[in-house]
Structure formats: C-alpha cells, structure tokens
Amino acid sequence: MRPVEDLDTPAVLVDLDVLERNIATMAGRARAAGVRLRPHAKTHKVPEIGRMQLAAGAAGLSLAKVGEAEVFVDAGFDDIFLAYPVVGAEKARRLLALGDRARLAIGADSEEGVRAVAGAFHAAGRSIDVLLKVDSGFRRVGVEPEAAPETARRLAGMPGVSLRGVFTHAGHAYLESTPGGVAAVGSSEGETLAAVADAVRHAGVPMEEVSVGSTPSAPHAMTAPGVTECRPGNYVYHDASQVSLGVCAERDCALTVLATVVSVPAADRAVLDAGSKTLSSDALRPTPGGHGFLMGRRSRLARLSEEHGVIAVEPGERFRVGERVFVLPNHACVVSNLHDVVYGVRGGRIEAEWRVAARGKVA
Amino acid sequence: MRPVEDLDTPAVLVDLDVLERNIATMAGRARAAGVRLRPHAKTHKVPEIGRMQLAAGAAGLSLAKVGEAEVFVDAGFDDIFLAYPVVGAEKARRLLALGDRARLAIGADSEEGVRAVAGAFHAAGRSIDVLLKVDSGFRRVGVEPEAAPETARRLAGMPGVSLRGVFTHAGHAYLESTPGGVAAVGSSEGETLAAVADAVRHAGVPMEEVSVGSTPSAPHAMTAPGVTECRPGNYVYHDASQVSLGVCAERDCALTVLATVVSVPAADRAVLDAGSKTLSSDALRPTPGGHGFLMGRRSRLARLSEEHGVIAVEPGERFRVGERVFVLPNHACVVSNLHDVVYGVRGGRIEAEWRVAARGKVA
C-alpha cells in the first residue's frame, strides 16, 4: 500500500478509522432509539461507503436526484428514498425504469409536483411510494404542519401514489450557535413531525413512516415518540461546520484535503494549491469564519480563488513552499461533489481508492 | 436538432450566437491593441470552445493545472501556458511527458517553487519556459514589483529554466464598484507590469513576454505600451458578476442554467431544482446580492442549499410548480467545473453537446 506522501495534491483523504467509527456510532444511536437509519448518501456519493452503512444496520439510503439513484441501483442498492420533490415527465420515465430494480420512494409537497411521476406509474399499472414533506421550521420546501392533513388527503387520493408517511429536515439546526440550541431544534423537529403524523392519521390517512433528518438534529429528533426513521448524511465525514456547531470534535472528522503550499509571497500570506474548485465556497456554519481549518495550525484560510487557498499566516507560524498541509473543509458534502476520487487512508497508508460514482448527478 | 424544452433540468446552456460574438469581440480588441490573446480556458474547460478561440486568432491557451493541460494536449492543443506556480516532483514528471507534445510554459514566483520542474527538465537535457508572476495589487501570489529584478535574475540562472517574461492578474478589478474603477485597475495593471519588465531588462535579464489578464481589466491593460499578451478567461461566457461590474450587459452572457420550479410552499417563496451543486456558492461581485439572476424576472435567488435554489418572490411575481426558468449564475467558471456536459443552443435548438473535458482536474 502506497504511503499518503505519494499522492499528488490536492487530494481528498478519508480516515478509515474515523469513518468506521462515525458509521458505527450513528447506527448504534438509531438502534438505541428504535428507529430505522436511512443515511443521506449525498455526503459521500460512494457506493462502497453506502455498503458500509448498510452493513452497520442502515435500512436503505436517502438521495436527492434520480441520477444519483441510478448510480446506486446500478451498484446493487435496492431500497432508496429520494428525499426531494421529483418533478417532471423525464424524471418520471427514468424513475419508472428504476422501479423494476429497487424499492423506491420520493418526496412531495404538492399535487402538481408529483403529478408526472404518479401519472407514469399509474399508466404502468403501478404506484410510487410517496412521503409528504413537512416544513419543521427551515422554510425551504414542505407544507406547513397545519396544512399537512389536507395535502396528505389529496396526495393519498391520487392514482399512482402510495402515500406512506411524512418527512422533514431541520436544516435550521445549522443556524444555531450552541449545542443546546441544536438539541432544541432536534427535539422540536421530532415532536413536530410526530404530531403532524398523528393529525394526518386523525384525518383518516394512514401514516407508517415518520422520518426526520440532519446530522446535528438527528440524536435529538430520533428519540421523539412516534418517529420511525432518521436520515442524517454528514456524520460519516463531519467537517469544520459540525465542529463549530459543537456536534463533534476535530478528531471525529474523517475527510480532509491534502494540499501543498505553492507560494509564500509575504510573511503574513501563504497560498495553497486548493481553492474553491477543491474546497467549495461554502461558508463555515453557524458563523462564517474562513474557508477551512488547517489541521495542527492556528492560521486560517482567509480567502479562496478557484485554484488558490490564501492563508492569513498567524504571528509565530511559518509556511514554506512545497510544504504539505491538511485542510478540514467547512462542508464535506460539497467537497465530495467536486472530486472524482477520494482516498481511504489508515495509518498513513492508502488502503482504498474510491470513485465518487454519483458525483455531478444534477438531474 | 432537439428543442431546449426536451432537456431535463438542471442543464447548462451556452447561447452560441453570444459565445461566438464574445470570442470575436475579444479577439478584435487584442488585434487592435497589437497583443497576443491567450485566453484562460478554465472558464469553459471545453476543447471545442478552445478551438473556436484559436480560430478567431488566439495564440494559445492559458490553464492552471497540469491535469487540464493533459486534457487539452490530448485534444490537440500545442501551445499552453500554465499561469500558476507548478510545484512538486509528480507534476514535474507529468509536465516533462507533456513537453514532448506541446510548447509549454509555467508561472513561478520563487526558486523553491520551480525547483522540481526545472530539475526534471534539466535532467532530461531540456528547459521549461517560465514567466515570473508579479503582484500588481491583488495580494494573492506573485512577487512585489520592486522584488522582480532580483527574483528574475535568480530564476534566469537556474538550470532547466528559460525565463521568458513576466505576468500578472489584476483580480482586484472584481472588487471595483464602478466601470471607471475597473478601468483604472486595468490601466495600472498594464503600466505596472510593463515598468517591471523594463526594470528587469535594466538588471540584465531579457524579457520577451509581458502578459496581463482578467476579463474586466483586459481592455484597459492590453493597451499599455510594452504589454505583449493578454489572458482573459470569463469573457467567453460572462456572468452576473460581469454585469454587476458594468463589464457587459445581460445580453452578452452566453451561459445560463435551465432550472425547474419544484416547490412553491408560500406566496413569497419558490424553490428551484438548482442549488449550490449546480450554481456554486460563489458570491456576486463586487457586492454580494443573491445567488444568480432569474432572466426576465425581478425576483432573486436568495439562498442555496446543495439541491435547492430558494427564490425570494417579489410582490407581483408568481412562480408555479413545473415552470422552467433561466438562471444567470454569479460566476460562470465555477459552474463549468460542476457539470459534465454543456449544451450549445441556437434559436431554441440544441446544436452541440459538449463534454466539459477538463472538469475536476484539480492537480
């Protein structure tokens, strides 16, 4: 096995010990809470890592786009929830083809949105499993909790739709600045969605699945009575944002970017060969502050161009041209989407070279 | 030829009439100024578009990474300047292999930085063309103007180095909020670099090439006496940032993203199937303000998640689920790097489907 030093830079490294521990920890949490774990595989987009999640007890995977589902079904996965409103005739056609090979479900928050997919499945004499998206406070997609019973009744009445439950994603957990705030959002997420499911049932529509999400909120949301499933994604890798949120420590972060100092044009400035093309421009959450941590250093990445990561060198630190550094990115999921390959590393040796097979599947 | 309506979304469209006009306009400017045009192909990463630039009179291409040069040399390009400090033994090895098939030059701003490449070429009995990077005010990489003669003398004395000139990139033009400010940065860029070249010559080091860059600054920098070459990149596509800078109008923007409204959960909110995975998180320049213009609409993309573009719907405007919109991104170059394919469109028909062959070449 090659040593990490042999890799050209920039390169995305995945610490296998940390990855395995993160996968086991979340699987254990879900088991303890008595809920199914359906990790969002957008974080890694790597079938090999999805298999590790299933082996640890995950019930299936979550994804967002039909193109991602195609990659994972081709890789042998047979139970996928597209936690996204899948809209339009072309995606309906592709989903129908996939439906022969896997158990599929999709998200929806309107009749108009699900009409093409429902119509295609109905015309083929089949139905598609649908979960109604509920807004638990993120204000992105999803119906308001009070509108859920009426929308659920209408969706359940559509030919081609098999309405199985409700789901939500408390993305606003990423805006909380204390662990207590994150926990409160998580608890509210679980309790809100369980109450919505009860209200829908009360309106005469059966609800099997009550599915919550997000790495910061998951441990708090999954323990709410009535929740049946949890869909965290980022936890496999973690990142600088999770550290800043207090969700984990730096030692729990599996993904780093190995980069080289290519220029030290001034005493207070050094430049890496990793810019936004490698790290993305995503801000640190909850409070913006640089473009990634430099492991073992106090200096931060102050700004990025596409191919340049500009370090504001702290007094007392020095960087030299040719030196290598490990960057902990602000947001691991988007880093995955920028790279064709990630390297699984253990004890300084490259144990795996994984293709990010579902990278760039935008549609 | 298929109509654009047949495309699934999100999809990246390139208006061929606008693309051809942009290429011709910049080529005409360079001709009029009497300088060579060496467009930075990072903007498109598409060999077919590079060929259009050469056909319009470009002398060669600029790129940043060895992996990009490999793609373009494989596609038949034989004159490439890597406008980047190329550091390290592995890149040196790959460059040496490429050097058999193309005329190559690289950037450098230190002896340490260029040592591996120079050593590899010298050991093979050859030399690599090098341009010294000068900082004309962007404060990223490059030596200070006053340090250029001494660094140039040292680089010129390194075995394996053939020092051919100086180059700069006035990226700080993107921080200017008026066309006059942009013009002033451009003029200063050209004059500063020409003066540096004279000072280096005065120190006894010959300088053939005096190369300036950036789409906003190019028209102003290329007319400075002594400038020999210009390296704008973004001009082929333009984007919302160029419009905001006053560099061009919306009708000069060739690249747009076709997206679908997938959710309208509230009267003041609509959600597109294009998020940061499609548009990137790059901010509008010079003044941040949303994540892209919606063509023909007043509403803006207020926030992005990876797969969601959240529109803040202006009073009086309405979006419906299933409707398609054209998004003018903040930054076209990074959009190219997120997609495997772009579609060349004319008169509503798809005339070309181009692979973004140099996408994701980070090393």
Mean pLDDT over the full residue set of chain A: 97
What is the architecture of the largest domain in chain A at the second tier of CATH? Alpha-Beta Barrel
Global structural class of chain A: alpha/beta
Strands of chain A, total number: 17
**What distance separates the N and C termini of chain A?**
37 Å
- Tell me the CATH topology of the largest domain in chain A: TIM Barrel
Largest interface: A-B, 62 and 62 residues
Q: Oligomer, anyone?
A: homodimer
Cα Rg of chain A = 21 Å
Helix content of chain A: 25-40%
CATH superfamily of the largest domain in chain A: Alanine racemase
> Which spans of chain A of ≥5 residues are poorly predicted at pLDDT below 50?
none
Task: Provide the number of structural domains of chain A.
Answer: 2
Strand proportion of chain A:
15-25%
Question: Element order, helices and strands of chain A?
Answer: EHEHEHEHEHEHEHEHEHEEHEEEEHEE
- Largest sheet report of chain A: 9 strands, mixed
So what's the overall shape of chain A?
globular
- Contiguous helical run count of chain A: 11
Q: What features would you describe in this structure?
A:
Two copies of one chain form a homodimer. With 363 residues, chain A is of the alpha/beta class. Chain A folds into two domains: 4-10 and 248-355, D-serine dehydratase-like domain (Lyase, Ornithine Decarboxylase, Chain A, domain 1), CATH 2.40.37; 16-235, Alanine racemase (TIM Barrel), CATH 3.20.20. Helix content of chain A is 31%, strand content 25%. Chain A contains eleven helices and 17 strands. In chain A, strands 1, 10, 11, 12, 13, 14, 15, 16 and 17 form a nine-stranded mixed beta sheet that branches. In chain A, strand 16 (341-346) and strand 17 (349-355) form a beta hairpin. The mean pLDDT of chain A is 97. At the A-B interface, helix 5, strand 10 and helix 10 of A face helix 5, strand 10, helix 10 and helix 11 of B.
